[in-house]
Amino acid sequence: MSIGEGVSGMTEVLRGREREQAALADVVDRARSGHGSALLLQGQPGVGKSALLEHTIATTDGMVVLRTRGVESEAPLPFAALHRLLRPTLSHLDRIPTRQADALRAAFGESSDDVGDRHLVFLGTLNLLSAVAEGEPVLAVVDDAHWLDDASAAALQFAGRRLEGEPIAIIFAVRDNETGQFDPRDLTLLSVGGVDETAAVALIADQVDTPVAEGVRAELLEATGGNPLGLVELTRALSQAQLSGAEPLPERLPLTAGVERAFLDRYRRLPEAAQTLLLLAAADDSGRVVTLTRAAARIGVGPEALDAAEESGLLNVGDGGVLTLRHPLVRSAIYGAATSGRRRQAHRALADALAGTPDEDRRAWHLAASVDGPDEAVVAALDDAAERARRRGGHEAASSAWTRAAELTVDPQERAVRLFAAAGASVAAGQPADGDRLARTALVDAIDPLLRSDILLLQGQIEWNTGSLDDGYRIVCQAASTAAPHDPERARILAMLAAALASFGARSVDAPDPATITSPPGADAGPEQRVAGWLLQGFSAVLRDEWATAADAFRRAWDTPIGPDAPPMLHHNLAIATMHLGDDDRAIALHDLQLQRARDASAVNMIEHALTRGAVSRIATGAWADAASYAEEAVLLDRNLALDELITFPLAQLAVIAALRGDPQAPQRLQALEQALEQHPPHGTIAGLVIGLSHWAAARQAGVAPARALHHLEQIKLPAARWLSAIDRIETAVRADRRDLTEKSLEELRTFADGSGMAWAWAAVHHCEAILGGADAEEHFRQALDWHARSSRLPAKARTQLAFGEYLRRHRRRTDARVPLREALETFESLGATLWADRARQELRASGETARRGNDLVATELTPSEAQIAALVRQGLSNKDVAGRLFVSPRTVDFHLRNIYTKLGITSRTELVAMTSDPA
Amino acid sequence: MMRGTPRTFVGPTVFTLDGAFCVHIADDVRARIGAMPGISGCELDIPARVLLVTAEAPVDRAEVLAVLRTTGCPVRG
Q: Which neighbouring-strand residues pair with A288?
């Protein structure tokens, strides 16, 4: 048994543990039959968690057993515990998606690559376990999970929540009231309490040869609550006279303190040298005798002290020179009792012992614990450790190392730089609250305005993503104003960002108008600055409904080429700006480019962003199958990677698509969206779009009265969302007989069309004028169709054709009516827009044409996930590659693929690839 | 790291507060932390649950925690 891979514990026979043993056996058995799950074994120190784990392992046959444990002093070593768990399985790495395999190697320090997106490590963990489990079911045991390093804890919790359908059991053991970074919510809990009286009495009897007085036994039972370690240690600590009742018992302490005192009493009876050695063992967790003896030698303690320490039973040297303490409480007792001076000395000795070994991270942290004030060499070692942790995707560890480095730095500016790096790492670790606290701390010392501006930008990002968009906006304005006198170019980009936030709904009375923060770029400015300036102008104009200015500025920005290495903020906002004008073709091109880059980098958040933006534009152009596929992939990503706060956006898109199609599932889609909105009210920059799409979907449900539909449509505030639903708003106002709202909306749209010159907008204006039924209705229909010919919004065009056909038929021009009606029907059928297609067919019949049956309307039976997987397989991707692309496990792909075969009546991948038409 | 690992610091450092507490504990925290040798600043932001302590000379974090605990201020780590 080793401190690293073993489960420390008690060799005593398990007594009185039938219930717990049965529960553990059940989890293992269910995993064996393919129903994997994770279990949390929780109890006080010494209650016998490790012994139960040992017993479970010993009684399990025919499974791959993997084991690891959290070690308190390993918190700053990213993925250390996970590496121990997975080490025996790394030969299977070639069976998981390449990106994930690379990420795992980088996380474990087996390559010097950057991990990139940390989700890849999490998915790699799950998929590696899954790959191993294809051979034999897997039992993974994680003892002392409360001490897991943060990165390992995050990866194992991710895997533990996704074991459904996998022949994998993960058992975590944690202490009561001490979960550390380990978040036990929604794991099945098995609480371990004290043993019953019969078992306790037997345990006491096992420890001593002499009879134990009845009163003493009762006292021991009460003091320990049946805690086996407590029973063993407190009994052993008593003299014969105390056991027989002849002498009084020592003062009673709380259980853990009592056990620690028993260990400490034993420790204090040892010779000085052995005590020093045990303190070193308590302060070092590597479990390597060679490190320990080398450190001991630094402070004049010879190797013979090891024998004395071992004889005390507090420490054990196992095979291969690996060292374990009797129980983690030995560690806390000895370490806790040492003065801070002695602790520093121990850490210094350990750091020296590790000099020149590959354990640089451990060494850095021992150094940090050994100094009593600022020290440049220690700071440099911590900086290096932080940088290594960052590369390995251990962002929590990187944040800790930079924070600690800052604490030992004299120069305030350098301190601020390190705290800023720490804040950024916390955000990367998904701990925005910690990131915000560190950013605040960094601002205390940051004097350099550009550094302050960078810190403020980070704070602003945290705020608009997790708190309030308005506050985030105010902070970004502050960042821009801070940079303005010193670096106007930087300030211009920040002001542009602030204006973009405002254009998506951010407001603050305390913030300056972003347009006033910097002057426009000069005539000799480079392309990036010109783009920043135009975007700033465009976003500001959107805010004032000055559409001509906005459209002109955005077009100039789009027409100015900038390199792929230009600030991401520019690329990002060039793409976002398209949504304000409803420039769908450009939106799709720019977001697809972004998607491609994000996929190449496996940058999960960016993939999600590009998918959801790409879907919005496709809703407008009628590429609904693609839009649904994008949105469905985003939902999958959000669910699978726990990006819950983003999920309402793609759900709203799916609800809109279903409603526009007249899909029988539309009400369920809307309901799913409403539930998600309740759990995760949208905030940040997506809020305006999510709310807009939600009202649009609600308004377009079948059978909704016009007044109610209109009420929904009038609650859409964000212009970009109002444009998407413009025709519906005006048509509904007409049906609801609200002349006032009809005219107001039409006027708004006309102003936009006039300023922006967008073809779809003019088409919509003429469509609406036409259905108002004036004398010039026909002329408006024709103009609308002329404009439609220049726009890619197919659904809108078909709606104009339908309305025009209806108009012509009502005017007894049945032959003329058939032309637009046929075209409308064809488009609606290709879109899968059932309700509109039915209307077009009815109109065609009324105009005297025997409409053919809508054979194209047989909706695909594949679910969006299945359709997506089918499409990727048809592109020639292997299951492994499909899994990597969609961030799911190969097993999930396989599961969907089998359903696809059944639904399509085929039996093989070859048949799927050979199918002539897209099954979706 | 182990609980109680020596952690001296200079400059500003953050303590995260757990839960709410009353006004005179806050006053007590400011007074007692502010009076510690080496400490030059003590800012309490109760809504943000943040205590920002600034040291002009090396101070051990454990000493600050010990003083905080005597005030009854609920603090993490």
A: A322
